[in-house]
Structures are given as structure tokens and as C-alpha cells.
Specification:
The protein is built from no helices and eight strands. It is mainly beta. The chain has a single domain, classed as Immunoglobulin-like. The strands form two sheets. Strands 1-2-3-8-5-6 form a six-stranded antiparallel sheet, with no helix packed on it. The protein has a two-stranded antiparallel ribbon with strand order 4-7. β5 and β6 form a beta hairpin. The model has no long low-confidence stretch (mean pLDDT 96).
Length: 90
């Protein structure tokens, strides 16, 4: 694949953007979810980030929280050669 799948995850080769998700059970048996967005290009880009769950997500790399509605974060800036790791537990 050279572009995002129907859910918005994968690799967009033309823009050098990667979006993927991981989840599993934490030691306390609660669900942990991660959405990872990476920008390998030399310029900042706006992306539509898909989420598996609505609610509050933490940005583990840059700090801060985001309230997600409609299972996405629309037109979100990802700086050049950088990324975001969104996290939610429970």
C-alpha cells in the first residue's frame, strides 16, 4: 500500500506520513490504546488522525490532551521530522 487504508491508517508515501495504532492490556488489566503519527518530511503537515475511541487522549511525546469526537482529529499539524504518540487507558 502506498496510501492510507479506508480507516485512515498506514503509510502515505507521497507525503511521508505514517499513522498506526497499537493496543493491549496493561498490568492492571485495563485496555491501553496508542495512536502513532510520524512525519518523515522536511515540512509540517496537516493530517486527519483516526481514533478508535472518542474521549480524552494524552500526547505522550509533546504533552497536552485532546478531546476526540467523531473518532478523528481533523486537520492536525504534525511538525517536520517529528510525530505524536496519543494514549488512552480504560
Amino acid at each position: 500500500m502506498t496510501g492510507f487504508n479506508g480507516q485512515g491508517y498506514g503509510v502515505d508515501e507521497s507525503r511521508n506520513i505514517v499513522i498506526y495504532h497499537r493496543w493491549g492490556t496493561a498490568e492492571d488489566r485495563q485496555l491501553e490504546q496508542f495512536i502513532i503519527v510520524l512525519n518523515f518530511s522536511d515540512y509540517g503537515q496537516h493530517v486527519n488522525v483516526p481514533f478508535s475511541t472518542n474521549g480524552i487522549w494524552q500526547d505522550l511525546l509533546n504533552g497536552g490532551e485532546y478531546f476526540i469526537e467523531d473518532y478523528r482529529l481533523a486537520h492536525h499539524l504534525i511538525n517536520s521530522n517529528w510525530g505524536k504518540v496519543f494514549y488512552r487507558k480504560g
